[in-house]
C-alpha cells in the first residue's frame, strides 16, 4: 500500500517537515518495493524519471528541485495496478468502481453509448423488439448481447471481453491473421467445452468487436496523385486531370485486374474520419478529464516538458484568445513521413501516413 501523497502538494514549501517526511516515506516505499536495487529513478522535475541515483541523491533532488507534481501513480517505483490506496488517501470514483469489480468492458460500452443504459436494459423484452431501432441502437444491443453471453456455460467471462483480450494479445505479439485463426481453433477444439461460443477465425472475431472500434474509409486515388475518386468523382473510371485509368491492368493482356470479383485500384487512401475520433476523446470519462490537463494541472515553472510550455503555444493563445479561453478545445499537431514497408521486397511499396496528435493530453 502506497504512503500518503498529500506531501506532494507542498512543493512550494520544500523545507517543511511534512514535505521532508513525505520524501523519506516515498524513498522507503521505493527501495522496499524494488528490493535489492541500489539506485532508483529520480522523479524530480529536472530528471523526470529518466536518470537514476542513490537514495541520498534522489532525496536531495526532490528537496532542491521538487517532485513532478502529477506523478501520483508511482509505477517506476514499485506501484502496481489494482493495488489498494492507503487509508489516508482520497479514493477516486474510478477506484471505487474497480473495488466493486465492474467489468472493464461494461465501462467501455457505457462510454461508447452514453445514451443507452446497459444496466437496465432487457435485450429479450417485447418492448425492445417492438421499437424501431436506429443504427446506434443496433450496434449497442449487438455488443450488449455478446457482453452478456458467456464464453461457455457457467463461464465467468463473456464472449465479448474474451475476444477483446485475445485480439489485444494478437496486436501486442504481432501475430498473423492465420496464426490467430489457428490459435482460436486449437482453443475451441482442444481446450474449451464443445458448446463454447468462441469464433472460428480472425474474421469472425473482428466482426464481434467491430462496433467497439473506429472504422476507416477506403478512397481510390489517381496513380499519379492528381485526384481522389471521392464524392462527385467516386464513380469515375479515369483521372479527370491526367486521364490515367483508375484500375490496375494486366501487363500482357491489358485487361483490368480483378480480385474477389472487384476491380483493383492503382492507389488507395485510407481515411480515418476525424470527427468521431475527437468525439471519442470526450466519451471516455477518464480521457475527457485529461483534456483540460494542459491548463488546469500542468506544472508551469518555466521548464519545457510539454507543447503548452512552448513559445509557439503561448503566441497562439495571444492571437486566438477566444479559442484559448476554453481549455476543452482540442489542439492538434500534424506529422507526416513516407517509408517503405517491405525493404527487402523487389516491388517497392511506399506509404505516407498523416498523423494528428491531440496536444491537450499529458505526456
TrEMBL record:
InterPro entries: Transpos_assoc, Transposase_21. Residues 5-78 form the Transposase-associated domain. It comes from the Eukaryota. It holds the Pfam family Transpos_assoc. PANTHER family: OS08G0208400 PROTEIN (PTHR10775), TNP2-LIKE TRANSPOSON PROTEIN (PTHR10775:SF158). This is Uncharacterized protein isoform X1.
Amino acid at each position: 500500500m502506497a504512503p500518503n501523497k498529500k506531501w506532494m502538494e507542498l512543493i512550494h514549501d520544500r523545507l517543511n517537515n511534512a514535505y521532508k517526511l513525505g520524501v523519506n516515506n516515498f524513498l522507503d516505499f521505493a527501495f522496499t518495493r524494488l528490493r535489492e536495487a541500489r539506485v532508483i529513478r529520480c522523479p524530480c522535475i529536472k530528471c523526470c524519471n529518466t536518470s537514476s541515483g542513490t537514495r541520498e541523491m534522489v532525496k536531495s533532488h526532490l528537496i532542491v528541485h521538487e517532485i513532478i507534481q502529477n506523478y501520483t501513480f508511482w509505477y517506476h517505483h514499485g506501484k502496481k495496478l489494482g493495488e489498494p490506496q492507503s487509508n489516508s488517501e482520497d479514493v477516486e470514483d474510478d477506484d471505487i468502481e474497480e473495488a466493486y469489480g465492474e467489468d472493464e468492458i461494461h465501462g467501455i460500452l457505457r462510454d461508447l453509448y452514453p445514451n443507452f443504459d446497459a444496466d437496465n436494459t432487457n435485450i429479450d423484452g417485447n418492448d425492445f423488439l417492438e421499437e424501431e431501432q436506429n443504427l446506434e441502437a443496433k450496434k449497442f444491443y449487438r455488443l450488449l448481447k455478446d457482453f452478456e453471453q458467456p464464453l461457455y456455460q457457467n463461464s465467468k467471462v463473456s464472449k465479448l471481453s474474451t475476444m477483446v483480450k485475445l485480439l489485444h494479445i494478437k496486436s501486442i505479439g504481432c501475430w498473423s491473421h492465420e496464426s490467430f485463426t489457428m490459435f482460436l481453433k486449437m482453443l475451441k477444439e482442444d481446450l474449451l467445452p464443445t458448446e463454447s461460443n468462441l469464433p472460428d477465425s480472425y474474421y469472425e472475431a473482428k466482426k464481434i468487436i467491430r462496433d467497439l472500434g473506429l472504422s476507416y474509409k477506403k478512397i481510390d486515388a489517381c496513380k499519379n496523385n492528381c485526384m481522389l475518386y471521392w464524392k462527385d468523382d467516386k464513380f469515375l473510371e479515369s483521372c479527370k486531370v491526367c486521364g490515367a485509368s483508375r484500375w490496375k491492368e494486366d501487363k500482357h493482356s491489358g485487361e483490368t485486374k480483378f480480385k474477389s470479383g472487384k476491380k483493383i485500384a492503382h492507389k488507395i487512401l485510407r481515411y480515418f474520419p476525424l470527427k468521431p475520433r475527437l468525439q471519442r476523446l470526450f466519451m471516455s470519462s477518464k480521457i475527457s478529464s485529461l483534456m483540460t490537463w494542459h491548463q488546469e494541472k500542468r506544472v508551469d515553472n518555466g521548464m519545457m516538458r510539454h507543447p503548452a510550455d512552448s513559445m509557439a503555444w503561448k503566441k497562439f493563445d495571444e492571437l486566438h484568445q477566444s479559442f484559448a479561453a476554453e481549455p476543452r478545445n482540442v489542439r492538434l499537431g500534424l506529422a507526416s513521413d513516407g517509408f517503405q514497408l517491405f525493404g527487402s521486397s523487389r516491388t517497392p511499396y511506399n506509404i505516407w501516413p498523416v498523423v494528428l496528435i491531440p496536444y491537450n493530453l499529458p505526456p
